[in-house]
Each structure stands twice: as structure tokens, then as C-alpha cells.
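Journal club prep — side note

Before the paper discussion, L.F. wants everyone to see what a predicted structure for a comparable chain looks like in C-alpha cell form. Sequence:
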Amino acid sequence: MLQDKIESLIFQNKTKDQLIEETITSLNGLLTDIFTGDDINELKKEFPEGVQLEDISIQLEAVAIYVNSKEFDVPCVEFLIDLIQEKTQLELGSYSVIYDEKSVQVDEILNLF
């Protein structure tokens, strides 16, 4: 019940599920570019040797709401996704997208371990 009230306040322009889908789409685009595209940011070398796109699975780790943050002037919501190497279940890193109160993307973060 409380979760529904919070979500109705935070997700007014787009639903939580829509923003999760946008985050996954963004991550898929980034991974596709890294492994099969131009790899403009030269990130493939940051992954373990031999890892291919099809070896990576993703898992939603958390949805975090920032009411007051040093980094952002407005309330934000962050969707954090873990990247996992399927064969070894080794966590490769995390990917997150942060949206403002109007559901506009304000930041994108890829952390590789």
C-alpha cells in the first residue's frame, strides 16, 4: 500500500515499468555497440577476455529514489542493473540510469569490476 502511494508520486509521467524498459533498452544498445559495433568508448577491453555479448545476463538490482542529493538539484530515481557472466555467475559490473522528476534521463553510469 505504501509502495503504491510512493510510486504514484514519483512516477507521474512514466510508470516504473516503462522506465525499467527504457533503462534495459539503453543498456542493450550500449552492450551491442561494445561487442558488435564501433565501441566508440573502447569499453570492450574492460570486460574479461573472451566474454561475448551472449555471455552476459542482466538483473535489476534496485530502484532508488533520491529526494535530496549533492549531485542533482531535483529529486531523481535511479534504476540499477547488474551485469553477470552467465557461465561463471561472476558479476561483471553494474549499469544505472538516473531520471529526474519528469522522467528525463539525467545521467548514465557503467561501472565494471
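L.F.'s comment for the group: The first strand starts at residue 56 and ends at 66. Keep this in mind when we get to the figures.
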